[in-house]
Queue: 2 jobs
Job 1
Amino acid sequence: MQFNFKNPTQIIFGAGMLAQLGEVAGRYGKHALVVTGGGSVKRNGTFDRAIESLKAAGVSVTECSGVEPNPRLSTVVRGAQIAKDENCDVVIAIGGGSTMDAAKAMAAMVYYEDEPWNMFFSSEGTFVPPTRALPVITVPTLAATGSEMNSGAVITNEETKEKSFVNVPILFPKAAIVDPELTVTVPADQTAYGVCDLITHVTEGYFNGVDGTPLQDRWAEGVIQTAMEWGPKAVADGNDLEARTQVQWASVAALNGWVQIGTKAGYPVHMIEHTLSAHHDVAHAAGLAVVNPSWMRFAAKQRPERFAQFAERVFGVQRNGGGAEEAAREGIDRFEEFLRSIGCPTHLSELGIGEELIERYADDTLRIINDGNGNLPGRPTMTKDDIVNVLRAAL
Amino acid sequence: MQFNFKNPTQIIFGAGMLAQLGEVAGRYGKHALVVTGGGSVKRNGTFDRAIESLKAAGVSVTECSGVEPNPRLSTVVRGAQIAKDENCDVVIAIGGGSTMDAAKAMAAMVYYEDEPWNMFFSSEGTFVPPTRALPVITVPTLAATGSEMNSGAVITNEETKEKSFVNVPILFPKAAIVDPELTVTVPADQTAYGVCDLITHVTEGYFNGVDGTPLQDRWAEGVIQTAMEWGPKAVADGNDLEARTQVQWASVAALNGWVQIGTKAGYPVHMIEHTLSAHHDVAHAAGLAVVNPSWMRFAAKQRPERFAQFAERVFGVQRNGGGAEEAAREGIDRFEEFLRSIGCPTHLSELGIGEELIERYADDTLRIINDGNGNLPGRPTMTKDDIVNVLRAAL
């Protein structure tokens, strides 16, 4: 086990913490670009409370609203231009993962001198990492992506229908103000998708990481168990602030790097899903709910013991004389049942996706990232046929 | 659950990472105060390799050796004076928790203008936190305290026989170079004490934290399970690098703040033990091994369900119709057995400590920290009599 890790983001967590936004933002700037999504933060009052806190602290505001789900490169470029035109010195994201990812990319795009799409990873050698960014503060209104406390951003190139990512230390937010009260208005389906998203963040590292990370295994299992205990409560009653609190903390911890530390995790499920949501307007986590169980059944053939451990520790599956394969299968079935129980889709047909473009999804996925031999990194690595078969099994 | 958390230390972890010391230190300074303990790092070659790496990176060195176990205020003052006299611009600790704690305190003492002992916490109103420190780099040679990646330091005032602490953000090391190869020469008894130390760091938060931190519970259990799985292997075969690796990572994770986040943990076991090792020359973690099980039996009377959870999740204790009290008792017994199995003492008599000064230990503990009503913070809070009784039960 080897790693080099630093996460310098300050996290301010708890119900009511939104009120601290102005004071925190004032440490980093005087004129904020406030980035928002489709308008829910305006309808539910979060935006007004944020602006009030900023103004009270002497921080003036320029708005960049309308970040779409699966945020687009053109939106990033637009936001960066506003920040430049208005001389913003700090970027504040108030919204879900899309808004936060877009805001982080905008903060870097302000200084970026290359072609905008080159800021995002590609197997074709065009990637030029950004080296400077405005300070970013995140205010998540959804418990899902963990973007609030990590250095990644996922952006869609709407022209090429590619979805890719950037992950560099300069993108760590200076502060994440994580206030579970802001999530009580999230509808049940989005809440369930968030639970699926956060669980998938840790299953990727758990199943695709290197051997010999036993503490990280335990922590990943802890995140999953916590999400499975509290997620259904948050889905059942959106106003259950305790459930919202536990789910949101789990979502931060699922992708702030602590659980994945040293695992050198691949993210094959995410990579395949990104291609789906680049082509179709589906919620990222709904896509994950479809791809992940199918991927697990594929990967468990190679590493049944690993999946049996998951089954035993997370679901209490007993082997009772059966082999690892049987326990692994039961664990994956139970996981899929859990996803269905909170309202997640588990078939492509439920997303309105057929088999027409299946080869294209595989090709696109491998164009974004491959291991140099044309295969998708992960355990095991996946050929194009493997990707096609996993998707076909999920039809 | 509410918290405000940031841990900006860069951790560079893995066998062989010592070679990176020079490059890392060179980012922060050109002339290092290198702080070491009793000489083992010189005998086993670690010191020479560190100096070689520093010199190759153009970092010159002034030494401050001889930091004792339970490091003394006079040693901190001495080291700070050397750093000032020699114009050191970075402090590097190579050693165990004592060396790292002393180095962190020296880094702040360089700029400290108050009475030296006022830098450390006291219930008597004399505490003046330091506000500035030289950059610190830690190179732990023992898996135990977690000091390498946190902002705390514990120092003994040898004149008053008080042992107290300081914990402020300026003391976070800039970088921790954690190389498990450096721990293979640690003797079996010290290895066992380290395992006990790291476990006690998480049991404090687990048993003395606020309610409603289920993810932190899982993570604490994960640290304990990992330490119990790999600790005995490291004790049995010091050259088992895999065991050394897992134990050392567990020791970092046990006190870098991640597991304790939001728990607002009290540390009654540590506070009581500090008084013992201020009066007697005993290893801190040997004292913890004695105090912790006795404290657990005291605290379990108030919160049997909490201790039953510990018993069930960590030791797989089944209730089988018995009550929480019975499960709690069995869990504590099993924990004590584990400590004995790796060679830790569990009675004061094994440390050469009798009952003569028991009242004094309690008084001293409460002088360092109390809740304003004269009781020791924790769950439950402890009166002087409670402390005396816990110590008496451990004779």
Job 2
Amino acid sequence: MSRIIALSGGIGGAKLALGLASLLPPEELLIVANTGDDFEHLGLSISPDIDTLTYTLAGLDNPSLGWGRRDETWSFMETLAALGGETWFRLGDRDLALHVERTQRLRAGETLTAVTQRIAARLGIRATLLPMSDDAVRTRIRTPEGWLDFQHWFVREQCRPVVLDVAFDGAAGARANPALLAALRAQPRAIVICPSNPLISVEPILALPGVRDAILGCGAPVLAVSPIIGGQAVKGPTATMLRELGTAPSAAAVAQRYGALLTHYVMESAEDAAGIAPKVIRAPTLMRTLKDKIALARTVLAAL
Amino acid sequence: MSRIIALSGGIGGAKLALGLASLLPPEELLIVANTGDDFEHLGLSISPDIDTLTYTLAGLDNPSLGWGRRDETWSFMETLAALGGETWFRLGDRDLALHVERTQRLRAGETLTAVTQRIAARLGIRATLLPMSDDAVRTRIRTPEGWLDFQHWFVREQCRPVVLDVAFDGAAGARANPALLAALRAQPRAIVICPSNPLISVEPILALPGVRDAILGCGAPVLAVSPIIGGQAVKGPTATMLRELGTAPSAAAVAQRYGALLTHYVMESAEDAAGIAPKVIRAPTLMRTLKDKIALARTVLAAL
């Protein structure tokens, strides 16, 4: 069995992951979620990218919000506000059940991998979904106000403080998910870097000891899909972050961040491919509908 | 200022507490909640009697369920069931906000007293509401299956296992709430034992070091309201527990448990007062409406 290994952050990555899951037999797809965005909030262990992938792959994503869970209700949050609690990170009543269940199982000694897989199975997800590591890696953002935890910068501060630097606390000492390293050793068919934010969704995975070398050494093609269209990210702070870190946001700028890792790069026809070393595949990368997601996944698989 | 100190468990006790709060200036009423029913569940610190008192005093109690919170929704519980989580203890979405907020503040080092008072103030409760102790006291029930945590016996097992014994783990080493002991030293006007289950709602309070002696030594009248009408508890397992522990359930049996502590006892006209040592006040004790609660509170205050 030769597997596709997809590295993914949240929303954009999850869309392509769903497309891939719609086309591939479940045993041929391994989806690896960034956990650098994970944090502890209100005493709960929250894993935003795992959750977005879980909800998207299970068909439970919230189409009107673009994040969180379908058929959501907000009684908890309303009441927490009335009690004077912290409400900057919005947790729906249904979403909360996942966080409470995960937190309790982690405290009981289960790994994040075990919890993620149990919940995925329970919700009918057949492809394998793994956290990048069972150890805590925490993305932090350096701003003129000092270092901020990622979700404080991203959600509480609404990305307003200028980004001066990004760090992945704990990454150097964390162990990459053994199942990821094993899959990289087992002659994968390809590695797909989903259209996620390179700086905060993909690079935390690549920062784990052994992952970059294993990708380079596995001999499989490595294909990334650009998260940038027309100098803008479809969603999220990718473009702003690139700009604040001194790079004009473009599809090419993202490819350059991945450097020698890439063999293939999927980007929009209108984007400038100058300076991109890997093989360029031109395709529509905006995924609004399930059909779009499957079409892009088909393009990706055809290129490999 | 001479205070009424009300000792209370959950539902029945909270009704009389609300009656008292409707009649007394807030600074003259101190309500002390049993915390023997408290437990940790799904990683949350849950204080059922404090919560029932809080919701009742704030006018937020759920009139149709008879427990929990008004205008409740159940998305969390539904979703937790779908995820395979523990659902034997039902937590509404709004109720959950209180548990999450309390748990987080306790973990941050606040006392249960501080958390309880902050939430009570936030919800507009003007009388003082205190937990009996800031230390953990855990009521346990001995059954033919062994010792069970109280909520496991009460909710999960629906009171089915026969009660052989009741213990208050941690009570001997716990410190009674200093504000309760101070109020008992400050010449209270009276102590009112609300119509709660003596075995599991009132006796945990009396089991705290110094409380019984302080009540006996304070010189104030001690009035209890019978939780038994016609050999039955209005709600909850009081009658069954008394019977299983070898006592025919009656108003008199409850008075006898309190023994020398009582100076006054309020009970229904139809109940047998034989063998009751304290002064008996006959009154309707069933509280369906706010009017009933205020009427009983008025009877109590008139007797003192």
